[in-house]
Every structure is written in C-alpha cells, then in structure tokens.
Design goal:
The protein has 266 residues and is mostly helical. It is built from nine helices and no strands. It has helices at residues 5-23, 55-91, 93-107, 111-122, 126-152, 156-163, 168-205, 216-224, 232-259. The longest helix is centred in the C-terminal third of the chain and has 38 residues, at 168-205. The relative contact order is 0.15.
Length: 266
C-alpha cells in the first residue's frame, strides 16, 4: 500500500513536534516563563504565548487532545450507529422506519450546529465535547451500515446461512461484519478526521475544552488576538491542525482505493 508523499511529510512533521515537546518534559506546557510573546528561537523553537508558555509544548499537547477526541468520537459513533444500522436492515418494517425517520431528523440539522447546541447545554469539557460530537455524528455509521447490510442480505452466502438455520448473531458476526469491515474502516478514518476538525472549531468558539487545557482550536482563538504582534501564535497550531487533517484525509483516501471495490465508501 503506497501512501502519498504529503501524508508522509505531515506524519514526520507531527512526530517531530511530539518528540521535541517530550524532550522538554511532560509538564512544559504548564510552565510560565518570563519571556512573553517571545519569537521562535533556539530556547523556544516556536516561541511563547501571551502568558509565557512554550507554544511547541502546548501544540504537542493539542495533538494528544485531538487524538483522544478522535478515538472517543469514533468509538461512540460506531457503538451507536453500527448496531442500529444492522437492526434497521435486518428486521425492516416499523423498526427500520422509526430509525430512518430519527436519522432523517438528525440530518435536517447541520452536524456542527447540533454539536454546538449539545456542547452549550452540557458545558465545556473533554467528555462533553466527545459526547456532543458522537450525538451529532452517529448517523453516518447508521446509514452506511444499513445500506451495506441490505446489499449483503441479497448475497447467496447470507441466504444460504439463513436456510441452514443459523442465528442472526452468527450471521452478523461471521458474514455481515467481516464483509462490510473494509467500508466501515474507511469511514472510521474520515469520522476521526472530522472529529478533530469539529473539536478545533468548538474550542475556537470557546465552548470546547476549558482553559487552561491545550487545544489547537483554543490556541488559534488565543493567537488570533495577537496575530499582528505575534503571528507565530496562529501559524504554529494552524500547521499542526492542517498536518493532522492531511494525515487522516490521505489515509482515508488510500484505504478507500485499496480496500473497497471500485473505490466505494465515503
């Protein structure tokens, strides 16, 4: 499997950020130096912010937060959407109609706007952000799982399993999930990338992670106030965020081309 050069460069850049930050110590993001708005130098490779905190260390901490959000949202959306999609396609009838109507209602509201509403109700915090993004994003896995299940149910091996009297659980675990796994894996990569972007957006609006937690979106929000006097406060987290999104985007596209028939999927 050949990965694009842009993805390799982005991954190398992020590894550099994390390694250099770790060499400065785990608590470097919380240290307050006397140098305020310090420009990038050998002492502070990416400079310092308005409170004298090392920008590189906080950016590395922001990467950690972004990946935690990505994994958390991915797990929750999969645990909600995949079982509901299987139920809707397998049983059909009123079960499918109810679940489809509910998903249509969620689709009527833009996902990010719904996440903003839920986060505003729950309050800022890592767990609340993950929960809000999962509530807004489970429909993707539901619709994809439902469509794939309807396709697979028409296949001869599934029909044969039903004729042989195999239980629904056995058919799901032995036939349906293994055959739709490549498509779900591709979708999972895009969901994770979308969660990173959404968390940055929520934090930029001030309803994501509370201060003084490090978040790339929060760093962009703080840095935008001083962009004319300290542009590195915006450039640094922006580069890290772009690198993260580029990695997930290119990884998803590469897996889609290699794992799914004729590039099906997202």
């Amino acid at each position: 499997m050949q990965f694009p050069l842009s993805m390799k460069l982005a991954l190398g850049f992020l590894l550099f950020v994390v390694v250099i930050a770790q060499l400065n110590g785990h608590s470097a993001q919380w240290q307050y130096w006397d140098a305020f708005f310090a420009a990038p130098s050998f002492e502070f490779l990416w400079g310092t912010d308005s409170l004298g905190r090392d920008v590189l260390s906080r950016a590395a901490a922001g990467v950690h937060v972004a990946l935690v959000v990505a994994v958390g949202v991915l797990v929750l959306t999969a645990l909600i959407g995949i079982p509901l999609g299987l139920l809707a396609a397998w049983y059909g009838g009123w079960v499918e109609q109810v679940l489809t109507r509910v998903s249509d209602a969620f689709l009527a509201i833009p996902g990010f706007l719904l996440a903003v509403l839920v986060t505003s109700l729950l309050g800022p915090g890592l767990i609340n952000v993950i929960a809000a993004l999962a509530i807004a994003g489970w429909i993707t896995f539901y619709r994809l799982t439902r469509i794939e299940t309807l396709k697979l149910q028409q296949q001869e091996f599934v029909q044969a399993a039903k004729v042989l009297g195999q239980s629904p659980w056995h058919i799901v675990w032995q036939h349906l999930l293994p055959n739709m796994a490549p498509v779900l894996l591709v979708e999972a990569i895009f969901v994770a990338g979308g969660a990173i972007l959404a968390e940055a957006g929520l934090s930029f609006l001030g309803i994501g992670l509370p201060l003084p937690e490090a978040s790339l979106g929060q760093m962009l929000r703080e840095g935008s106030r001083y962009m004319l006097v300290a542009p590195h406060l915006v450039v640094a987290p922006a580069l890290v965020l772009v690198a993260l999104l580029l990695i997930f985007s290119q990884l998803g596209e590469t897996l889609r081309r290699n794992l799914t028939p004729q590039g099906e999927g997202n």
